[in-house]
Design a protein that fits this description.
Radius of gyration: 21 Å
Shape: elongated
Bound molecules: flavin-adenine dinucleotide
Structural class: alpha+beta
Distance between the termini: 23 Å
């Protein structure tokens, strides 16, 4: 799975500080390093709207449709996703969950190949991509570009980086959080520390699960 930071608001923390200080008419108190103390105070008092002035865009490729379906539930996020209507899935890639033991991996892959053959069969009967896709699995990989403001990213990380969230969306969010924490450390420090505390092992899923390709036998 690839998680790539495509774009981010330049000087994001300064932009947030500038916006918030407008509320208090204290722009004259901004210095080159004042954001480090000022932004946590905003968060502590629940003054989160200034964090909506900074945005980031990510490209996520190779995650499953099972994971993307969860991600796109976040309504304050803009999404552009690979279409299963305009793009054929006759050679679809798929994600193998880490819980599938090595001894059964071959069986999982054989099932994916059977599904690929079903898809091709229904296409050969004249169904369009949009209807042939009804036989595709949630394991099928996808690619999407998402954009959100920092307030929404903080929210997404809070709910998707707990042990209650599914392993793949945790892996996606962890990678996005690492990127954002590098670019805007003050904004995401508390979220990152909480995520590490909740899941100190950063276990199996950190780099994404193993993948297969149903077209392999073509
Ligand atoms: C562990 C976990 C398990 C889940 N299980 C299920 C499940 O079994 N079934 C299921 O259907 N979903 C499930 N979800 C998805 C969940 O219900 C939400 O749809 C998803 O997490 C999006 O979160 P959200 O609505 O808080 O955030 P966003 O859509 O990202 O919105 C951000 C925030 O904006 C505010 N907001 C946005 N829209 C509105 C609105 N219309 N009215 C008022 N306030 C709004 C809210 O404060 C919201 O928290 C699960 C999520 C998690 C994290």
């Amino acid at each position: 799975m690839d998680v790539e930071l495509v774009a981010i608001t330049p000087d994001a923390e300064a932009v947030i500080e500038r916006a918030a200080r407008t509320c208090y008419q204290s722009a004259d108190r901004a210095t080159t390093d004042s954001a480090a103390a000022f932004l946590p105070k905003l968060l502590a008092m629940g003054h989160e709207s200034p964090f909506e002035h900074a945005y980031a865009t990510f490209r996520i490729a190779g995650c499953s449709r099972a994971a993307s379906h969860q991600l796109v539930r976040h309504r304050l996020m803009a999404v552009s996703q690979r279409s299963q209507r305009y793009v054929s899935e006759k050679s679809f890639d798929y994600v193998v969950p880490p819980s599938v033991p090595d001894s059964l991996r071959g069986e999982f892959e054989a099932d994916m190949e059977s599904i690929r053959q079903l898809y091709v069969k229904w296409k050969s009967y004249g169904l369009r991509n949009e209807d042939a896709r009804f036989v595709l699995p949630n394991a099928c990989t996808t690619e999407l570009v998402i954009s959100a403001n920092f307030r929404e990213f903080r929210h997404i990380f809070k709910v998707r980086l707990t042990p209650h969230a599914q392993w793949e969306i945790r892996a996606i969010c962890r990678q996005m959080l690492e990127s954002l924490a590098r670019e805007a450390p003050t904004v995401f420090r508390d979220i990152r520390e909480a995520a590490i505390k909740a899941d100190p092992q950063r276990s199996d899923e950190a780099e994404g699960a193993p993948r297969g390709k149903a077209s392999r036998h073509q």
